[in-house]
Amino acid sequence: MATADHPPTHRRPPGAPAAELPLEPEMWPLVQNRHDLVSVGDAIGNVVLTRVHPKQWWVGLLAGLIMLQFLAVSVAWLFYKGVGIWGINVPVAWGFAIINFVWWIGIGHAGTLISAILLLLHQKWRQSISRFSEAMTIFAVMCAGLFPLLHMGRPWFFYWLYPFPNVAGVWPQFRSPLTWDVFAVTTYFTSSLVFWYIGLIPDLAALRDQAGKRWQQLVYGVLALGWRGSAIHWRRYEKLYLILGGLCTPHVLSVHTVVSFDFAVSIVPLWHATIFPPFFVAGAIFSGFAMVVAIALPVRKWYGLEDFFTDHHMDICGKVMLATGMLVCYGYFSEVWMSWYSHSLYEWGTTLERLFGPYGWSYWTLLFCNFLVPQLLWSKRVRQSTFWLEVVCMAALVGMWFERYVIVITLTRDQLPSSWGTYAPTIWDYATMIGSMGLFLTLFFLFLRFLPMISITEMRELLPKKQGGGGGHSIMENAP
Amino acid sequence: MSTPSTLPGGPDTRPGSDISGHDDTAAPAVYGYLAEFPDGDSLVAATRKAKAEGYTRMDTFSPYAIGETADALGFPKSEMGTIMLIGGLTGACSGFFMQYWCNTYGYSLNVGGRPYLSWPSFIPITFEMMVLTAVLSGLFGFIALCGLPRFHHPLFNSKAFDRATRDRFFLVVEAVDPKYDGPAVRSFLDTLSPLSVEEVME
After folding, report:
1. Looking at chain B, which runs of residues are DSSP E strands?
2. Which of A42, A234, A242, A258 best probes binding to B when mutated, by most B CB atoms within 10 angstroms?
3. What is the pLDDT of residues A178-210, one digit of tens each?
4. Distance in angstroms (rounded) separating the CA atoms of residues B38 and B41
């Protein structure tokens, strides 16, 4: 990806030893313009410390808060009345709750991918979008977690999901993917939060020392835990960050694998498939990148942060979306192929129902959004155009929502025609979904206001040495 | 740091006049000498020279990690790997045995005559518990080893030190160093061409 865009070689001064290249590659500038340590801190830090927020920020927050009211009302009504207010029934017993759960948690995965997997792969372009997308992960997992909890009917007994000594002597059934999900999502939320916070500590200290107002010094100072940038602390910090990256990499794959087990372990035709885990993970990354880019494009404009979220970043994100989108489409192909090739009556019958049955329109919508529209990303002009990239991202988000819809709606036509049925969401299903988007937007706009949306520390590291940056300094032990 | 006075009208300089019994007039203890550098390379060079000079109780401070200084200070490795390995293994074992105990003894559920110890279905949670405990032991291990949270530190008495998280690089030679001798340290640090050298009080 990034490495494909190698530097124009003439930039290297003649006679410079080639051995220095891996340390300070003269690749496309990931930080544009002649920033130095102070200007990086000011450009990013002043967004939260001094800047009067742009009008769009207020509009966004207000929109989020209004949508959040939908959640408040629908959850209050749900608590009073029960899950009967939703359109769920046999055979589709989960409906929107699991569609939205999988959609949100998939969106969250891009954050961990960017911060953990790309960290291990030494992809330096990840640094400017990592903080931003980690925040997105945490908020998306919060939204995702809402749905299984609300679907329980008695959400105040949520702790029954965990093993704890109780008078009834009942323990969870650990052979069920639903209990795996509880542990996977809980761990995912915790580890994402820890990863995010560890990354924030040096930035919070920078804000503490940069802040002009007393309350800012106090709040950021307390959150920074008294960080002072000691070499020995840095060594532990970098080691911890690297190991966390190493742990979160298999972990993020495991989370969506476990989510796919919720479907794949059952014996419903088209669900009981070994392709599900990789298919789900690719879809998660696809939709997650779509969300990252969809938010980053307007935000960088509002805050004038084009120096950090450069067109080059958007270009790379577009390529990642194209690659993962094609993986997802391979999954669609494989599903149809396997059901035809297997000669299984039920698999093939369900496939025909999926393509041409009463809900066939949703399948073609998903193919349009996830297969046809992303083809635009082959063009570099589209990848670098704010408008068209935004269009593709929105299509991908809608398409990935419909993918889960198509999977869940499979239940309306299973092996036994006597158990066939229909599913239609009610107004409360929609209200809860819009409400979850409101929760996400509200949290995200508050994050933009109160925490640095780009890692100040990592941007400083990324600067070339001649601009005061860490380019060329080693981090791990036994540096030459 | 100026000791806050309990009396209006400035500090009371009479010996032993503080109501807490603390002698305000006693000279504050010295924490060490702090030298300020403009960039990472000069900090690395200075740290290596100070090490060669025989100082052992030193630390450096920078807005981002500079691995060479940690090496020069004689801190080549970090304990984080060991801590997280032990934490993760503990979590994996306890996670597995939790499931085994719950589904075998706590509430044994016979599903189609399958064994109680159906270990393949216990693997996902074992893995999740491994990650969870490794991450948490990493977080708490890191905070504990670094002695955080520590909201006050003698170095925060230095005004220049505010820029340690911004654009300056610092080397401190602590007073607890066996070779420490105020004027000698100062003149040695001056030879490293720093931007400034300052004596920091406790």
Report:
1. 30-37, 58-61, 169-174, 196-201
2. A234
3. 899 999 999 999 999 999 999 999 999 999 888
4. 9
Q: Which residue has the tokens 């609300």?
A: A150
> Do residues A66 and A438 make contact, with C-beta atoms less than 8 angstroms apart?
yes
Residues 6+ apart with CB under 8 A from A349: A269, A413
In the numeric block, the tokens 């390529």 are attached to A319
- Chain segment A244-268, per-residue pLDDT in tens: 989 998 999 999 999 999 999 888 8
In which residue are the tokens 């100040």 written? Answer: A456
CA dihedral B172, B175, B178, B181 (to 10 degrees): 90
Helix, strand and coil in chain B, % to nearest 5:
45, 10, 40
Is there a contact between B135 and A222 (Cβ–Cβ < 8 Å)?
no
Q: Which residues pair with B198 in a beta bridge?
A: B34
A177 to chain B: which residues are within 8 Å by CB? 124
Please give the angle made by the CA atoms of B200, B64 and A12, to the nearest 5 degrees: 130
| Sheet (strand B196-201) strand order | B58-61, B169-174, B30-37, B196-201
Contacts of A239 in chain B (CB under 8 A): 78, 80-81
User: What token pair was written down for B175?
Assistant: 């007073």
The shortest CB-CB distance from A225 to any of B63, B138, B143 is to: B143
- In this complex, how many residue pairs, one in chain A and one in chain B, have their CB atoms less than 8 Å apart? 225
Residue that the structure tokens 């207010």 belong to: A85
B65:A261 CB<8 A:
no
Among A129, A116, A117, which Cα is nearest to A316's? A129
Contacts of B159 in chain A (CB under 8 A): none
**A185: nearest CA in chain B?**
B128
- What are B6-32's pLDDT values in tens digits? 445 445 555 544 555 556 666 678 888
pLDDT in tens, A85-140: 998 888 888 889 999 999 999 999 888 888 888 888 877 778 888 888 899 999 99
The ipTM value here is 0.86
What single letter denotes the amino acid at residue A307?
A: D
**Which token pair is A436?**
């979850």
